[in-house]
């Protein structure tokens, strides 16, 4: 299993240094990861550092809590695209979800998705599955699966629970076939990464990416 091609090599800590970004981009190029996922202020530098490679530049919107207003998220989206982002991982408004305001969530995705799709960028929606019930996860699959997104993503990595086989399996059962599944949060070894892919994940968000692929050497991971 060529695990490297599934991985968004990620660094999103609030104390990220430019030297961290340089390291992540060098590793992403070396291991041919799918993308390097970085904080919004580093999108321009990341795009430049990855120039000439197949690695995409990925960033986050409304991260990590998702309760920015729609107007604020739109501004973030425009800025990310202007700075050169190829892929945008957007945290939904979890406050709206937990207050059962699905109308707001519908308005949010309807406001953001067209901007991204018009520019032919990849849109991933983060629902923070670790703090949701199965019913809420299924409703998210129905809402976002019909909205034209490219991936539904399990987690930010900041909640008490990250990716799980159970969540990925639910996604697989309730999403349209054309929508990818990104598992992220707490993926630290080859075994768990492989299990997530076998359950249906088509992309992995990892900060321990190098350890994961190195741990799979001899098993066909890289």
Automatic annotation (TrEMBL):
Please give the chief subcellular localization of this protein: cytoplasm
Stated EC number for the protein is 4.1.2.4
Quickly give the catalysed reaction: 2-deoxy-D-ribose 5-phosphate = D-glyceraldehyde 3-phosphate + acetaldehyde
Q: Which residues constitute the catalytic centre?
A: 89 (proton donor/acceptor), 153 (schiff-base intermediate with acetaldehyde), 182 (proton donor/acceptor)
What pathway does the UniProt record associate with this protein?
Carbohydrate degradation; 2-deoxy-D-ribose 1-phosphate degradation; D-glyceraldehyde 3-phosphate and acetaldehyde from 2-deoxy-alpha-D-ribose 1-phosphate: step 2/2
Top-rank taxon: Bacteria
Q: Which GO terms describe its molecular function?
A: deoxyribose-phosphate aldolase activity
Keywords in UniProt for this one? Cytoplasm, Lyase, Schiff base
Which locations, inside or outside the cell, does it occupy? Answer: Cytoplasm
Cite the SMART domains for this sequence: DeoC
Which chain regions cross the lipid bilayer? none
Supply the CDD domains for this chain: DeoC (cd00959)
Which Gene3D superfamilies does the entry mention? Aldolase class I (3.20.20.70)
Q: What class of enzyme is it?
A: lyase
Homology family: Belongs to the DeoC/FbaB aldolase family. DeoC type 1 subfamily.
| Function recorded in the entry | Catalyzes a reversible aldol reaction between acetaldehyde and D-glyceraldehyde 3-phosphate to generate 2-deoxy-D-ribose 5-phosphate.
Q: What is this protein called?
A: Deoxyribose-phosphate aldolase
According to its UniProt entry, this protein's organism is Niabella digestorum
| The gene coding this protein | deoC
């Amino acid at each position: 299993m060529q695990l490297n091609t599934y991985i968004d090599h990620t660094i999103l800590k609030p104390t990220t240094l430019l030297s961290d970004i340089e390291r992540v981009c060098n590793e992403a190029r070396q291991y041919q990861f799918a993308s390097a996922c970085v904080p919004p202020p580093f999108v321009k530098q990341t795009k430049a550092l990855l120039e000439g490679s197949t690695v995409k530049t990925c960033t986050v919107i409304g991260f990590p809590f998702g309760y920015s207003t729609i107007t604020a998220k739109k501004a973030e989206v425009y800025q990310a695209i202007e700075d050169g982002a190829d892929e945008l991982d957007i945290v939904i408004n979890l406050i709206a979800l937990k207050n059962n305001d699905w109308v707001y969530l519908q308005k949010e995705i309807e406001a953001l998705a067209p901007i991204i799709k018009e520019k032919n960028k990849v849109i991933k929606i983060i629902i923070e599955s670790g703090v949701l019930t199965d019913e809420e996860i299924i409703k998210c699959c129905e809402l976002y699966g019909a909205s034209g997104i490219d991936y539904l993503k399990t987690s930010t990595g900041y909640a008490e629970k990250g990716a799980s086989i159970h969540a990925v399996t639910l996604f697989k059962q309730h999403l349209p076939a054309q929508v990818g599944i990104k598992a992220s949060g707490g993926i630290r070894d080859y075994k768990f990464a492989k299990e997530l892919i076998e359950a249906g994940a088509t992309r992995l968000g990892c900060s321990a990416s190098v350890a994961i692929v190195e741990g799979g050497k001899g098993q066909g991971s890289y």
